[in-house]
Write a structure and sequence with these properties.
With 341 residues, the chain is mostly helical. It has helices at residues 2-24, 26-34, 40-61, 64-72, 77-101, 107-124, 135-166, 172-212, 224-241, 244-253, 259-279, 286-299, 308-340. It has one domain. One of its GO terms (biological process) is phosphate ion transmembrane transport.
Amino acid sequence: MIHALVVIALILTVGYALVNSFHDVPNATAIPVRHRALSPVLALMLAAGLNVVGVVAATILLPLAHIEPMVVEPIDPAPALGVIICTLLTTIGWDLLTWWWGLPASTTSAFMGGIVGATVALGWVDLTADLPLDAGLLGHLVVPVILAPLVAFALAWVLVIPSVRGLRHVEADQVRLLARVGMVVGSTGTNVGHGLFHGQRVLLLMITIPAIGGLTAGPIDEALPWAMAVTATAFAVGSLLGAWRIARTISSRMVSTDALRGGVAQGVSGLLLFAGGLAGGVSMSTSQTTAAAVLGTGTNQKYRSTNYRVVGKVLLCWLLTAPVCAVVAGTLVLALSPLLG
C-alpha cells in the first residue's frame, strides 16, 4: 500500500511540475509577445531553457541540511503521503481550472492552502496531531497573496513616472527598442525566478516522497541528480505548451499598456522574482507578482485602459485560491482517510 502511494505521489509531482510551468509561462511571455519583443515560439523556447537554468540553480542552492530531519525522523508514511497526494491533486486541478478561466492565479497559494486543509482534516480523524499552522507556513501564504503583489504594483506605478519623463524627448522608435530590451531582460528574470522557486519545491517532493515511504537508503544528495533531471524536463516541456488564455488576460484583457509601461512592468516582476528566488526562504507567486506589476503600470496613465470587471475577477480569484484549495484538499483527505489509518 505504501509503495503504491509513493508511486502515485511521484507521478502527481511530475504532473504538478508540468501543469505549473504551463500555467505560469505567460508571466514571462505575455508582455514581450504582445509588444513584439519576442515571437511566440522564441518566447516559449526561451522560457523552457531558462526554467531549466532555474532548476539547476535551485539544485545547487537547495538546503540539504533542512531536508535531513524531514526524512530521518520517524513519520507515519500513509497519512503524510495522503496529504501530499491530495494537495497535488488539488493544486493541479486549480491550475487547470484557472487556466481555462484565463486567470493568473497563484500556484503557491493553492499548494500551501492544500497542505493546511489536508493536514487539518487528518487531525479531525485523529490520524495526526501535528497541524502546520505555525507562522512560517502562514507567511508562505501572506507573502504571495498580499505583500508581493502590493510591492510589485507600487514599484511599477512609481517607476513609470521617471521612465516617461526621462524619455519624453527620445524618438518613439528608440523608446520602443529600449522597452523591448527591458521586456526581454525582465522575462529572463521571471523565467529563472520561476525555476528557482518552484524547482526547489518539486525537488523537495522528489526527494522526500521516497524517503517517507522508506524507499531511500543512501545519502540524500545522491538523489539530487535524478530529481533535477526529471524536474528540469517537466518544467521545459510544460513551458513549451504555453497557456495563451492567461497570456491574453495579462497582456490585454486586464489592462492595456504601451510598450514603455510593458517594459517597466516586465522589468519589475523579473527583478523581484529573480532576487526573491536567489534569496530563497519565502515563496512568491510569479502570476500575482507579474499581474500586479502590469496593473500598476497600466493604471498610471492619463487615458482609461483598465477593465475593472476583469481585474475584479482576478482579485477575487487571488483571495479565494487558498481557502478553496484548503477545503478541497481537506475533503479529499477525509474521503481517503479509511485507507490512511
